[in-house]
Amino acid sequence: METKIIDGLALSKQIYDDLEKRIKKLKNIGITPGLAVILVGESSASQIYVRNKVKACEKIGIISRQENYQDNISESELLKHIYRLNKDNKINGILIQLPLPKHIDTHKVIEAIDHNKDVDGFNVLNAGLLMTGNPLFCPCTPYGIMKIINNENINIRGANAVIVGASNIVGKPIAMLLLQAGATVTICNSKTKDLESHTRKADILIVAVGKPKMINGSMIKPGSILIDVGINRSSENKICGDIDFTSVKSIAGSITPVPGGVGPMTIAMLLTNTVESAERLIKD
C-alpha cells in the first residue's frame, strides 16, 4: 500500500492566504489584529517557538507584541502584565509560552487571561464551552488536526478514533471535537493495558505522548489515518515523531510527517483564532 504523506505546511499556507484576505477587510475598517506573546525565561526551544509565531504574524499582517521576562519574575508581577494586556484594545489574543518556571502557578496564569483573548483556548471557561459543543476558541493543535482531517475528506462520522495521550492541550480537546463530529472515541494513556488492542482498531489514530517512535507498524490498522503530534529527538539526535514513520509507511492510508505535519497547522490555527477574535469586534 502506498501511504499518502499529508503536507501540513502546504495546508497552512492555504490558511494564511485566506487570513490575509480577512485581515485586509479588517484593516479597511480600522482594525488590525494584534497578538501578544509572553515568554518567561530563556529556554532555547521556547524562544524558537515564539520566534516562529512572531514571524508568521508579521508575514500576514497581524501585529505581534513579544514580551520577554526573566525566569525569576514573580507570579504577581506576571499577572499584572496579563491584566494590562486584557485591557489593551489593540491586543486581540494573548499567548503564554509554556512551560512556566516552577514557582509560577500555570493554572492561575491561564485563568487570568480574558477568555475573549484566550486564543490558546486553555482556560476553564473556554474548555467548558468546547465541552458543550459551542467553543469560543478551539485549542490550536486540535483545531489544526480537525482541519487536516477535513481537508483530507476523511469521513469522521462512525469512524473509530483512538487518541494516545490524554493531555488538556491535545488529547482531551481533540476527543471532544471528534465526538461532536460523530466519531466513536477511545482515549488511551500511559496506564492503558494492551495498548495495541486499541490502536489496531483505529480508523483514525492520533498520538500525542512525547515518546519517540512508540507506535510501530504492528500496532496499526491497514489503511488507517495517522496523526503524529509528537516532536522528539531520536537516539541518533534526529527529529522524529511518536510514530515510527518508516515502519508504518507502507501500512497506513495516510500520515502526517514530523516535521511538516501538525506543527505548521498549530501556528496557523493560533493566527486564525487571533483573527476570529478581531472579527468579533465587528459583531459585538
Short description:
This protein is an alpha/beta fold. The protein contains ten helices and eleven strands.
Distance between the termini: 51 Å
Strand content: 15-25%
Overall helicity: 40-55%
Mean pLDDT: 96
Number of strands: 11
Please write the CATH class name of the largest domain: Alpha Beta
Using the alpha-carbon principal axes, give the shape: globular
N-to-C order of helices and strands: EHEHEHEHHHEHEHEEEEHEH
The main sheet comes to: 6 strands, parallel
Q: Rg to the nearest angstrom?
A: 19 Å
Q: How many structural domains does the protein architecture include?
A: 2
What fold name stands as the CATH topology of the largest domain? Rossmann fold
The number of helices is 10
List the defining traits of the structure above.
284 residues; alpha/beta; Rossmann fold; 2 domains; three-stranded parallel β-sheet; 11 strands; 42% helix
Describe the structure.
The chain is α/β, with parallel strands linked by helices. It has two domains: about 30-115, 3-Layer(aba) Sandwich (Rossmann fold), CATH 3.40.50; about 140-260, NAD(P)-binding Rossmann-like Domain (Rossmann fold). The protein has ten helices and eleven strands. The protein has helices at about 10-30, 45-60, 75-85, 105-110, 125-130, 140-150, 170-180, 195-200, 245-250, 260-284, and strands at about 5, 35-40, 65-70, 95, 160-165, 185-190, 205, 225-230, 230-235, 240, 255. Strand 2 (about 35-40), helix 2 (about 45-60) and strand 3 (about 65-70) form a beta-alpha-beta unit. The longest helix is centred in the C-terminal third of the chain and has 22 residues, at about 260-284. The mean pLDDT is about 95.
